[in-house]
UniProtKB/TrEMBL annotation:
This is ribose-phosphate diphosphokinase. PANTHER family: RIBOSE-PHOSPHATE DIPHOSPHOKINASE FAMILY MEMBER, RIBOSE-PHOSPHATE PYROPHOSPHOKINASE 2. Keywords: ATP-binding, Kinase, Nucleotide biosynthesis, Nucleotide-binding, Transferase. InterPro entries: Pribosyltran_N, PRTase-like, PRTase_dom, Rib-P_diPkinase. Residues 8-115 form the Ribose-phosphate pyrophosphokinase N-terminal domain. Residues 144-271 form the Phosphoribosyltransferase domain. The lineage of its organism: Bacteria, Pseudomonadati, Pseudomonadota, Gammaproteobacteria, Pseudomonadales. It comes from Pseudohongiella spirulinae.
Length: 295
């Protein structure tokens, strides 16, 4: 018996794409807020002894996590055999150690919360640093996919003579994989972060790439400052206007306007719903679901 897929608000396009690809039933549910902000959930399907899957982007996690957990517990309370989570963007990954005395290690606390309510987790390009595998913090079966292949496919089909550029040394291996799959050369910038919103970068040697289209790739874009500075340096060096291709478009307050003012084209995957979504993750997620046992 195939699972029933329930999408949280904002994930309707990806849910339609995924359910069509897999032949899954799209579940029917009512999700709304009471006047005081509390979440109301009603499941309109019979889920007893069936497998249920929740599709939820966890951007703005303090707003999106609790409704998702209420959905999971409602499904389980109504008799669902298993409840899995597809979270294309997984939140609370940056605070993975105690940097200063008195700080909480929120990535560990968040993973325990998710693990207590779900049976398995599927995500895409989580922001891993000191955590090398999700199994280090999640106690449920967890699979992390990478969007390098769909990103490379989009670049290969839409960009003339691309030069793949990683924004910092940490992205070198990741950018190199995108470049290899796109059949393109690769360069990496060096980045020095001076604060939450202040970044200094230096350019690679680009003289031999002046007739290429620079494509800045990264796992996420938040303030956009790194991309804007990199684009400015690349164009001042005589290169074509760059394109930014990223997995997760977080877009912190003011970022969109700054990117628009810089006339920078940004293309994102549909892990977080946005007008910049051009790369569909449904095929990638479908492959990942086939790898997870117990679906």
């Amino acid at each position: 018996m195939t699972p029933i897929l329930y999408e949280m608000p904002g994930q309707e396009p990806l849910a339609r794409s995924l359910s069509k690809l897999l032949g899954w039933q799209q579940g029917q549910a009512i999700i709304r807020q009471f006047p005081d902000g509390e979440t109301y959930i009603r499941i309109l399907d019979d889920v007893r002894d069936k497998k249920a899957v929740i599709l939820s982007q966890l951007h703005h996690p303090d707003e999106t996590t609790l409704p998702m957990l209420l959905m999971a517990d409602t499904l389980r309370d109504l008799g669902a055999e298993k409840v899995g989570l597809i979270a294309p963007y997984l939140a609370y990954m940056r605070q993975d150690k105690r940097f200063n005395e008195g700080e909480g290690v929120s990535s560990h606390y968040y993973s325990r919360l998710i693990s207590a309510h779900l049976d398995w987790l599927l995500t895409v390009d989580p922001h891993l640093h000191r955590i090398h595998d999700l199994s280090e913090v999640y106690s449920i079966p967890s699979l992390s996919l990478t969007a390098v292949a769909p990103m490379a496919g989009w670049i290969r089909e839409n960009v003339d003579r691309p030069l793949i550029i990683g924004p910092d040394s940490e992205s070198e291996q990741w950018a190199a994989r995108v470049a290899e799959l796109a059949g393109a050369p690769c360069e990496v910038l060096t980045k020095q972060r001076l604060g939450d919103r202040d970044v200094k970068i230096s350019l690679p040697h680009v003289d031999r790439y002046l007739d290429y289209t620079p494509v800045l790739v990264d796992d996420m874009i938040s303030t956009g400052r790194t991309m804007i500075q990199a684009a400015g340096h690349l164009t001042s060096a005589g290169m074509r206007a760059p394109i930014c291709v990223v997995v997760h478009g977080l877009f912190s307050p003011g970022a969109r306007q700054e990117l628009q003012d810089s006339q920078l084209t940004v293309v994102t995957c549909n892990s977080i719903p946005d007008a910049s979504n051009k790369i569909d993750l449904a095929p990638l997620l479908g492959e990942g679901l086939a790898c997870l046992s117990g679906i």
